[in-house]
Amino acid sequence: MTLAHITDEEIDRGRTTLKKAKKAARKQPFGPDFSPAARSEPTILDPYTCISNMLALIIRKENDGWVAEIVLKEVPEGWPDVFGTPSRSPFASAEAARRDGFRMVNEQYQMERAGHAPKTPFPGKPFIVGNRVMFATYNGTW
Predict the structure, then answer these.
(1) CA dist 75 → 33, 44, 88, 125, 140 (Å)
(2) What residue spans define the domains of the chain?
(3) Considering only Cβ atoms within 10 Å of each terminal Cβ, which end of the chain, N or C, has fewer?
(4) Pick from 84, 54, 75: nearest CA to 126
C-alpha cells in the first residue's frame, strides 16, 4: 500500500465507517427499472473498485473542508489505492462528506447487485501500451 497521507487510526475508524456504509447499502431496494449511475469518467482504478476490495471509508478534514476517501485493499504495485471526493472541492461539514462517501459505496454496491459491475477485483496484471492500460482475462470469468 502507498498510504502516505492516511494514518493507522484513520484506517481503523474508516473500517467501521465502511461497515456502516455497506449495511446501509444492503437496505437500499431497487426495482426492475434500476439503472446504474453513470460515472463521470472511467478511471484506472475501476477494475479494482468493488465492495470486496474496499478496506476503509475515511472521512477527514483537508484544507478548508472535509473529504471522503475509499481505500482499496489490492491494486497493482505503484498504483494509487485511494479514491474519493476531490480535495479541491471539499465539503463544508464532516456529515456532508460522510453522506457522499456512503453514496459512493451504495452506488458500487447497487451496480454489483444488479450485475453491472464485477464483484471481485481484476485478477491479473494490466498491460500498459503507450499511454493506454489494457485489461485482459483468459478464462472470461471476470
Answers:
(1) 33, 10, 24, 9, 20
(2) 8-134
(3) N
(4) 75
